[in-house]
Amino acid sequence: MTIEALDLPAAEPETDSGDALTLGRRIRERRTELGMTLEQLAQAVDRAPSQLSALENGKREPRLPLLRALASALQSTVDELLLDEAPSERAALEISVERAQRGSVFRSLGLQPIRVSKATNDETLRAIIGLHQEVERLHSERAATPEEARRANTELRAGMRVANNYYPDLERAAADLLDSVGYSGGPVLQQTVAKVAEKLGFTLHYVSDLPHSTRSVIDRRNGRIYLSANLPSRDARAPILRALGSLVCGHEEPKNYGDFLKQRVEVNYLAGAVLLPETAAVESLRDAKKRREISMEDLRDAFAVSYEMAAHRFTNLATEWLDLNVHFMKAHESGTLIKAYENDGVRFPSDALGNLEGAMVCRNWTARTVFAQPDFFNPWYQYTDMAAGGTYWCTSRLENAKEGQYSVSVGVRFEDVKWFRGRETQHRSKSFCPDERCCRRASTELTQKWHASAWPEAATPTSLLAALPTGTFPGVDSHEVYEFLESHE
């Protein structure tokens, strides 16, 4: 069976980009020229004034029917409203300031955005823009060292958001693999996965001396896949499918970190799409939505996979098939963000470059509060009021690994929680991050007592300091791998 190499889409701007801001300013300026109030325009297009206010402030983009109605009410055309240039020099300044305040550099400073009003003069706006440009320059200069991995990761996450984390080519590839071995439904068994490997021309070998820096090793010359003999039978399915995924997707040795990360996303996606087949998983989720009982636990149990894989798979299918925007996060017990995805507008912590992994999660978020709960066997539900961005609901569970405990969380905006089990929870929290007063600043009493005496040594992961040599697999000892293959040939 031959399946062509698959590709992920390139990153595109977020919906609250400069285009949305420009459109909003053009709508506001045209309304003002006609002497219309926001309420009058809202009545003309049969919408709430709050909705139009969000459009004029660049926080939402209208669908085409609303855009046509607005153009008609404003005695304009859709093309005129969608022009790229700002309607005036003043509007251009306001757009630049607003865009700067929505950027990752400004958010990383922990400052409260200013509200630009008519009373704010042009000189003040130019000064703010100039200061922001200089801060961006300093951040870029500071980050011009080995930041290839972080930049590549940021670009990859943006591409995933554009695609709603759904890739039809990978879904078809997974369906073809299952069809090739006669899969007819139910959880995908270890035997089924072994048949897939055999169909692709590979035999499985469980060994006790697998190189410590690998999860699996493929011997393409002899048609073998080596895995650790210590894997439980159920958990062996995902490593096998990830190994096969590199063959199905036509992967070659990565040339840079961007290639490596893209390949990792593809094989993880393919493994999830095989173990939770699209047709069956969508049917299960649609039935759960109809009953207003969507649950990651039910999805996990129905397909006999880990909670993390069920949560991942849910993000693949939620937007495409359930019309739900969601977010996912995996956090270490230390508070470090390990993985994250969102298309529902939640603001994850990030560095100045917009990179999420490695940032500290707010102590008040569900992903952190779950660690303090005494009941490890049931999911933890919580509503969190964000300082900017409204209220989000999350469900979270803990999973153990050799590095410690992790929380795996899935969440949605408040207006979408009606479809989920656990919506009746009374647990609620507030988050003001990145304002340090939210959860990162000690009390004045403790600060005064210990500030001059404390001298901790940071436990810096070596992976943060390692640059990627071209033509290698990050974190893998090639010498060890080649010796391993030689000894088993």
Automatic annotation (TrEMBL):
<dbReference type="InterPro" id="IPR010359">
    <property type="entry name" value="IrrE_HExxH"/>
</dbReference>
<dbReference type="GO" id="GO:0005829">
    <property type="term" value="C:cytosol"/>
</dbReference>
<dbReference type="GO" id="GO:0003700">
    <property type="term" value="F:DNA-binding transcription factor activity"/>
</dbReference>
<protein>
    <submittedName>
        <fullName>Putative transcriptional regulator</fullName>
    </submittedName>
</protein>
<dbReference type="Pfam" id="PF06114">
    <property type="entry name" value="Peptidase_M78"/>
</dbReference>
<feature type="domain" description="HTH cro/C1-type">
    <location>
        <begin position="27"/>
        <end position="81"/>
    </location>
</feature>
<dbReference type="InterPro" id="IPR010982">
    <property type="entry name" value="Lambda_DNA-bd_dom_sf"/>
</dbReference>
<dbReference type="InterPro" id="IPR001387">
    <property type="entry name" value="Cro/C1-type_HTH"/>
</dbReference>
<dbReference type="InterPro" id="IPR050807">
    <property type="entry name" value="TransReg_Diox_bact_type"/>
</dbReference>
<dbReference type="GO" id="GO:0003677">
    <property type="term" value="F:DNA binding"/>
</dbReference>
<dbReference type="Pfam" id="PF01381">
    <property type="entry name" value="HTH_3"/>
</dbReference>
<keyword id="KW-0238">DNA-binding</keyword>
<comment type="similarity">
    <text>Belongs to the short-chain fatty acyl-CoA assimilation regulator (ScfR) family.</text>
</comment>
